[in-house]
Amino acid sequence: MKIYITRHSLTAWNEEKRLQGWKDSPLTKQGKEDALKLGEYMKTIHIDQVYSSPLLRAKSTARLIFKNENIIEDSRLKEMNFGDYEGEYIQDLKKKHDYFCLWHQPQLSFSLPNGETYEEVVFRLNDFILEKYNEDPQQTIFITIHGMLFTILHGIFLDLPVERLNEVNQEIVRGCSLSLFEFDGKKHKIDFIGKDCFLTPLKAKISYK
Questions:
Q1: Catalytic residue among 79, 116, 146, 154
Q2: 204 pLDDT tier (thresholds 50, 70, 90)
Q3: Active-site annotation holds for 104
Q4: What is the pTM of this model?
Q5: Which class would CATH give 2-73+89-195?
Q6: 131 among known catalytic residues
Q7: Binding site annotation covers 103?
Q8: CA 103/CA 35 separation, integer angstroms
Q9: From CA 130, how far away is CA 141, in angstroms rounded?
Q10: Which of 5, 47, 121, 170 could form a cystine bridge with 179, CB 3.0-4.6 A?
Q11: Mean pLDDT, the chain, as a whole number?
């Protein structure tokens, strides 16, 4: 099974550098333009089914990429729930010890106050992947997800334990860039990550650390 992946496009809270999680903000003008550019690129690639997180920023991105396609929303693709810290400015959160631990000392049982644990997110992501593989191991799917969710998925496909996710969370994958992962029922494979040749060059890397 092939899995094409994109992170939702640029949002108002991305520009304001605020933590989103299950809370939401709309796509910006640039965000909409980037999604349309990815849509043009995807016209040459066969996709059997498109799935999206049900959060507005993700499903809005998916609808701009695949204008006339059926898009299935799946709650297992939602961003990690960051609990009480959602909506806060990243710069302020960096002063908090538990936010530091989220990125620098990840643990299976760790969560921000009233948020999800890493273990809960890993479980729902693995559940989604295995379900889709069992439905049709030869299919090619596309998923529209989120930054931390992509980091965790990246770790799963590198067979990393959660405790080593700090090795792959230095940067957040760019919104509307394209990645390709594969799963054969046992082994995980990463073909490429963050392809963005069809987007305007990015001036700065994206980090929440």
A1: 79
A2: low
A3: no
A4: 0.95
A5: alpha beta
A6: no
A7: no
A8: 28
A9: 13
A10: 5
A11: 95
